[in-house]
Amino acid sequence: MVVIKRMAECNYCDEVFCVASKQGTTRLWNHYHAFHDENEGKPNITKLKGADWKYDEETSIRKYYLAIIMHEYPFSFSKHEYTNDFIRSLCPIFY
């Protein structure tokens, strides 16, 4: 009796896999996405140059208050020591 194992080889790193007939190419695709796909798992981030961004205190405060209102936090949240400490860590001139 002869046992035949189905094998598949990665075209990128020459790793060899045993594959069941039910898997088809799934195992190879999973290997490719895990080890060879450069775009997989990387966030799509657009980088801004320092000159493209300008701090606008009025806009920042307006967005800060809008976040408090939309999340229905009590207005005292804006006077909380740790909240303002966090905001000052982002922008030292925040009052």
Automatic annotation (TrEMBL):
Q: Which GO terms describe its molecular function?
A: sequence-specific double-stranded DNA binding
InterPro entries, sorted? Cuticle_assoc_protein (IPR053031)
Query: Which terms in the GO cellular component ontology are assigned?
Result: nucleus
- The name this protein carries in UniProt is BED-type domain-containing protein
Q: Which domain of life is it from?
A: Eukaryota
Gene Ontology biological process terms from the UniProt entry: regulation of transcription by RNA polymerase II
